[in-house]
Amino acid sequence: MNAAQIITPDQFQNEIALLNKKLIESDEKIFCLEEQLAWLKRQVFGKKSEKIVSDLNGNQLFLAGFDGVPAAAETEKTIPAHTRRKPNRNGQDKIKLPPDLPVVTTILDLPEDQKICQETGVPLVKIGEEVTHRLAHTPGSYYIKEIIRPKYAHPGQEEKGVQTAELPESLLPKCRADDSFLADILVKKFADHLPLYRISEILSREGIEISRKLLSQWVVRSGIALAPLYDEMLEQILKNGNIFVDETPVNVLDENKVRTGYMWVIVGGHDSDPAYRIYGFSDRCYENLFKMIGNYRGGLHSDKYGAYQELAERKQIIWFPCWAHIRRKFFEATAGDPEFRKWVLRKIRYLFMLEKVAWARSPEERLKIRQEKEAPIIDELKKKILDKLGDPRLLPKSKFRQALAYFTGLIPYMKNYITHAFARLDNNVAERAVRPLAIGRKNWLFFGSDKGGQSAAVILSLVQTCRGLGINPRDYLEDIFGRLMSHSSQKLTELLPDQWLRSRKQSAKPIS
Fold first, then answer.
1. CA-based R_g, the chain, Å
2. Which residue, among 333, 247, 243, 241, has the nearest Cα to 285 in the 3D structure?
3. How far apart are CA 12 and CA 24, in angstroms?
4. CB neighbours of 384 closer than 8 A, spacing ≥ 6?
5. Which tops the pLDDT comparison, 92 or 501?
6. In angstroms, rounded to a whole number, what is the distance separating the alpha carbons of residues 125 and 115?
7. Helix/strand/coil (H/E/C) assignment for every residue in 396-418
8. For the chain, N or C: smaller number of CB within 10 Å?
9. C-beta of residue 300 within 8 angstroms of C-beta of residue 276
10. d(CA 459, CA 220)
11. What is d(CA 440, CA 442) in angstroms, rounded to the nearest whole number?
């Protein structure tokens, strides 16, 4: 045997150790890949709901000293050999129509020869009517608004010129589209999520040919004209001292390629579901968020994105991390310690159930519930999760390990909501505001330019705020289009959706 081929015992042991190390690394990689594959399969084929089977019973969440809010009990009726849920007839399946809806009457009468008895020849007598009502539809009607302005001149002094009445104010002067038509286009795109090419096709079926390019120009110009209202609404949101923030990617057409931009969403107010929604178009750079909120100092609800954490570390905001995101991390960690995962999810569920009770109480009682009932649960979670994170058997790249690390990174801030009655346990308010944008981008796919994205942010803010307030955005936009240009810049608050709605209600009240 050649001396170069002889392996010493020490070399043999080192070779075995190296192979074992590679085997462990390969097992860890396979585990992580299988976990990712299982997650992907759940996203494509599985249920999207995060509900889990609970082993709670009615006595596990008894609040000593507080009256619980009883859950709505389902009524059942006994059927031979089985039970069946009794249908809930609460009127939700009925049609509700406005009282001023036009009625087109059609009379279907018998022919004259059938109004005579065929046996005796005696004329039949009308004794009543059968009336049937059906909701009907006609295609959207369009018309040309012709404005005639007589011209006047001095009969003997032509140098004094010609006088005519002023045109009504419009959002886009010299535009061939009336404010009512512009409002309809904006609502179809930003509330109904129709892309402009589809709107153009719908118009063409009515014999109206307008190119997508021209529609796009009108949309961009409208967004620029509405910018002062947008700025005023952002200022009002930041004055509230309580905001919900989220961000989502959007595609932007850049010459002949598509790049990724971001749409920031800020929802403001102390209500349980604030109506004001501001969308800001930019990229995901921290500075863009800092620029949007300026010197804002107050409560901020969000997920664990670094920009929010940096603001919290600066002590500029009171950060309320979202517990729904914490819960989601453990829900997705299906390949970790199953019993510990169930325990964590059960404890987080306790928090949400307690919050449901707390928000049905006064602010003082809400704080008491949080401090006496919720704080101990969070302390227990922190202790157990920190102990679990020290387990050397955890795979560093597993979703379970990532969920534990996500939780521990938020420990300094996760109890902030306990001492602020207006704070929420989650950031679902902002996530609901993101949802219309997520639906829209599946239809229009991308913004045509940065300017288009900025205009879209302005229009989205007004339209979605109207929807949050229960306002028909078409009525709101059409009304303010004719008033914005002449309105005092010091009183722009009067044209914001909530103030507009309040003035409409006051003007509709009967004078006693």
1. 32
2. 247
3. 18
4. 340, 343, 344
5. 501
6. 8
7. CCCHHHHHHHHHHHCCCCCCHHH
8. C
9. no
10. 9
11. 5
pLDDT in tens, 57-96: 444 444 555 554 444 444 555 555 556 666 665 655 677 8
Is the pLDDT higher at 385 or at 37? 385
Provide DSSP, 268-313.
Answer: E-SSSS--EEEEEEE-S-HHHHHHHHTT--SEEEE-S-HHHHHHHH
Give residue 87's pLDDT: 62
DSSP code, position 390: T
Alpha-carbon span 59 to 458, nearest angstrom? 50
Task: Give me the chain's average pLDDT, please.
Answer: 84
Q: What's the helix, strand, coil split of the chain in %, to 5?
A: 50, 10, 40
* Cα-Cα end-to-end distance for the chain: 116
> Which tokens sit at 76?
């059942």
Q: What is the pLDDT of residue 71?
A: 46
Backbone angles phi, psi at 229, to 5 degrees: -65, -40
Please return the burial class of 425, using the count of CB atoms within 10 Å of its CB with bins 0-12, 13-18 and 19+. buried
| 93 vs 232, more confident | 232
Tokens read off for 487: 């309105």
Instruction: Tell whether the model's pLDDT for residue 509 goes beyond 70.
Output: no
User: In this structure, are residues 261 and 252 in contact, taking their beta carbons and an 8 Å threshold?
Assistant: yes
User: Would you give the DSSP letter of residue 284?
Assistant: S
What DSSP designation does 442 have?
Answer: H
Q: Which of 307, 302, 295, 389 is nearest to 340 (CA)?
A: 389
Q: Which residues pair with 276 in a beta bridge?
A: 268
Among positive and negative, which fits the CA dihedral 349, 350, 356, 359?
negative
| pLDDT of 390 | 82
Residue 239: other Cβ atoms inside 10 A: 10
More confident residue, 110 or 182: 182
Asked if 431 contacts 246 with a C-beta cutoff of 8 angstroms, the reply is yes
Average confidence (pLDDT) over 141-159: 83
User: Which of 280, 237, 244 has the alpha carbon at shortest distance from 262?
Assistant: 280
Contact 443, 193 (CB under 8 A): yes
Q: What is the DSSP-derived secondary structure letter of residue 447?
A: B
Instruction: State if pTM tops 0.85.
Output: no
Helix ranges, 64-178 (H): none
Residue 142, pLDDT > 80, answer yes
Q: How far apart are CA 428 and CA 420, in angstroms?
A: 18
Place of tokens 């560093």: 396
Among 77-86, 265-274, 424-433, 462-471, which is the least confidently predicted range?
77-86
> Is residue 264 a contact partner of residue 251, using CB atoms and an 8 Å limit?
no
